[in-house]
Specification:
With 193 residues, the protein is α+β, with helices and mostly antiparallel strands. Helix content is 30%, strand content 34%.
Length: 193
């Protein structure tokens, strides 16, 4: 088995970059998770769509994509490495450098990981990485008001509600309202996350 490079590792999850080789597992998990994601999110469900999706995250400098991977049971015996399956994903889109140093989050948990706290741990790792090695100052999450799972995730992570954007994104044939949530590097360091 080849060595996988993780950006950060926690107790139960590790984060790493997307690869084109993840297509089969990612798309299988996405298909298994349709009921969890709909009507909020539509990750790629076939290898061709995944190649386009992952390719943008890999090649575009205004994006950073992270797969949340479960740690294997070997961790309990003191071994290093994740080795487990993909539990979800967190992407930072629309990264702007210069005086802004900001990006917009998009994310999703796969059905087998929902309610287990894996996304909370993964988001904490992504935030530390974004505010550390990526050098960002602010991250935003725009969430449809009825998406209770996503709202709960950002609340747990320490994001603050900053406003409401009517007709913000075109999803499933209609313009959808979103709440604007954000966190800064200073907020993260104050919370000790």
């Amino acid at each position: 088995m080849s060595q996988i490079d993780y950006f950060a590792e926690g107790c139960r999850v590790a984060i790493r970059a997307y690869t084109l080789a993840d297509a089969e597992e990612f798309t299988t998990r996405a298909r298994e998770s349709r009921d969890v994601h709909s009507p909020w999110l539509f990750p790629p469900e076939d290898p061709r769509a995944y190649a386009t999706y992952a390719g943008r995250l890999i090649d575009d400098p205004t994006k950073a994509g992270f797969l949340i991977c479960e740690r294997d049971r070997g961790r309990e015996s003191g071994e290093s490495g994740a080795g487990g399956g993909i539990a979800g994903f967190i992407n930072i889109n629309n990264i702007v450098r210069g005086g802004f140093l900001c990006g917009a989050l998009g994310y999703g948990a796969f059905a087998h990981a929902v309610g287990r706290g894996l996304m909370s741990e993964g988001l904490a790792l992504v935030l530390r990485y974004a505010f550390g090695p990526l050098g960002l100052h602010r991250l935003e999450a725009n969430i449809q008001p009825g998406n209770e799972g996503s709202l709960a995730l950002v609340r747990r992570a320490g994001f603050r509600l900053e406003g409401f954007s009517p007709d913000f994104l075109f999803i499933q044939g209609a313009w959808r309202d979103h709440e604007r949530w954000a966190i800064t590097a200073e907020m993260l360091s104050q919370d000790g996350v």
